Amino acid sequence: MLQMRRLICFEKLAFGGAAIGVSVRGFCSVDFSRIKICGLPRVVIVGRPNVGKSALFNRLIGRREALVYNTPDDHVTRDIREGVAKLGELRFRVLDSAGFEYHPSSSILHRTASITASALATSHFALFLTDARAGLHPLDLEVGKWLRKHAPHIKPIVAMNKSESLFDVHGSLSSAANEMFRLGFGDPIAISAETGLGMPHLYASLRPLLLPSLLNDEGSFQHSHHQDTSLLHVDKSTLPLQLAIVGRPNVGKSTLLNALLQEHRVLVGPEAGLTRDSIRTQFQFQGRTIYLVDTAGWLHRTKQEKGAASLSIMQSRKSLLRAHIIALVLDAEEIVNARRSMKHAEVVIARRAVEEGRGLVVIVNKMDLLRGKNKSSSYEKVMEVVPQEIQTIIPQVTGIPVIFTSALEGRGRTTVLNQVVDTYQKWCSRLPTARLNRWLQKVMSRHSWKDQAAQPKVKYFTQVKARPPTFVAFVRGKTQLSDTDIRFLTKSLKEDFDLGGIPIRIMQRSVTKKDATGASKSRRSLGRVAERTVSDKRSVLVE
Ligand code: GDP
Question: What predicted TM-score, i.e. pTM, was given to this entire model?
Answer without folding.
Answer: 0.54
